[in-house]
Specification:
With about 375 residues, the protein is mostly helical. It has one domain. Helices cover about 50% and strands about 5% of the residues. α1 packs across α5. The longest helix is centred in the C-terminal third of the chain and has 29 residues.
Length: about 375
């Protein structure tokens, strides 16, 4: 059987022959699938879930949709809910290329669903949405959430389309070679002209499986490779998915799933987010101000008493493993260290390791609960 990398496209530029496409076309379809979930024209099912599943369990019947997408605009909270829903559906294999006997292979998307849900809650919190001067944080959260999604979700779709061809197709992903309609819609998204040429970057390799690396950019410049191109960490992350699919040993599967999550978290945080928001001087300045205010308003010293009333102005930095915005039950919640310097890659990754381990533990010990919460997040996509 021909693979995606070996076969040719149909004479009809908007479909594939017998579910086989060349690599450039599969990445166009993958990017379109991601963008469709941010398109307000997408039909909504009776349960409120946007219907992104297209028509069949093949890519052969999936066309390039003509026309301009009507993207969710500057309602960053609603957009983040759609992103969270998309990640959850991918984790649950609830999409037209999904395979229910492989739930959990895209393990990062499970953690990503909870994280994007939390971003939505933070964006819409009164501390970020209403407090004067927080517009930089509001913009940064919205920007990071959107462009992590545009980078990462298509990798999962491309793998699901044909795992055997993924290793040869992955290095060919380049947004400049997308189908013209897909490329046009990609560049119509917020911040696209600034982000796409420099997303992702490459960072120094990790020393071992537990190490996140230094986060230092490598390559001829900080904008290399850009255009959603392949990086070695993407290859490593999806090699763990392939190994996961190739074993029936549950302990081995669990170990491989976490390794995939950890490598993709490095890609997400170091190769996408660091350059987009965490190296931005205005964003760093606001984070420093928040840390200073948090230190002053939470102090036990007598002179800080008048300031304690303002402590509520500091949004809590936490991730709750619930479909709700927040929980006080610490078995389902990861609080950031109080002295965390968020813009520091190493410190941020240390907290993500702790949070990832909590997610992993809950998935092993409270699987029914976690699956229920992920299904609830999956149903958030149609909410405004």
């Amino acid at each position: 059987m021909d693979t995606l990398a070996e076969s040719s496209t149909n004479s009809d530029n908007n479909t594939c022959v017998d579910a086989h496409c060349d690599c450039k076309f599969i990445w166009s379809l993958a990017q379109q699938y991601g963008m469709a979930q941010l398109d307000s024209r997408t039909p909504v099912l009776k349960d409120g879930t946007p219907d992104y599943r297209f028509t069949s369990h093949t890519i052969g019947d999936t066309p390039i949709e003509p026309g301009d997408a009507s993207f969710v605009g500057k309602n960053y909270g609603a957009r983040a809910r759609r992103v969270a829903s998309s990640y959850a559906r991918l984790f649950l294999e609830d999409f037209h290329l999904g395979e229910k006997d492989k739930i959990g292979r895209f393990y990062w998307t499970g953690l990503g669903a909870f994280a994007a849900k939390q971003v939505s809650a933070n964006i819409e919190s009164w501390q970020v949405d209403k407090v004067p001067g927080m517009d930089i944080v509001h913009e940064g959260l919205g920007k990071g959430n959107l462009w992590i999604y545009n980078d990462l979700l298509p990798w999962c779709y491309g793998y699901a389309a044909d795992p055997e061809s993924f290793s040869s197709c992955a290095p060919q992903r380049d947004s400049r070679t997308f189908h013209p309609t897909v490329q046009k819609n990609l560049m119509r998204q917020q911040w696209a002209s600034d982000v796409v040429p420099k997303c992702p970057v490459m960072i120094e390799p990790s020393k071992n499986d537990d190490d996140a690396g230094s986060g230092k950019f490598v390559g001829k410049d900080s904008e290399s490779p850009g255009y959603f191109k392949w990086t070695p960490r993407v290859s490593i992350g999806f090699n763990f998915v392939k190994q996961w699919e190739g074993t029936t040993n549950e302990k081995t599967k669990a170990s491989l799933a976490f390794k995939h999550l950890w490598v993709m978290a490095q890609h997400e945080q170091g190769e996408v987010l660091q350059g987009l928001i965490y190296n931005d001087n205005a964003f760093i300045s606001k984070l420093k101000f928040q840390r200073t205010m948090d230190g002053v308003t939470s102090s036990d010293h007598w002179w800080a008493a008048p300031m304690r009333l303002f402590h509520a102005l500091i949004p809590p930095l936490q991730l709750s493993f619930t479909a709700q915005n927040e929980t006080t039950d610490m078995q389902y919640r990861s609080n950031a260290p109080p002295d965390l310097i968020l813009e520091d890659y190493g410190q941020r990754m240390a907290w993500i390791m702790v949070t990832g381990k909590l997610f992993h533990s809950l998935m092993q010990k409270k699987n029914a609960y976690m699956m229920g919460e992920l299904k609830a997040i999956a149903a958030m996509g149609g909410l405004t």
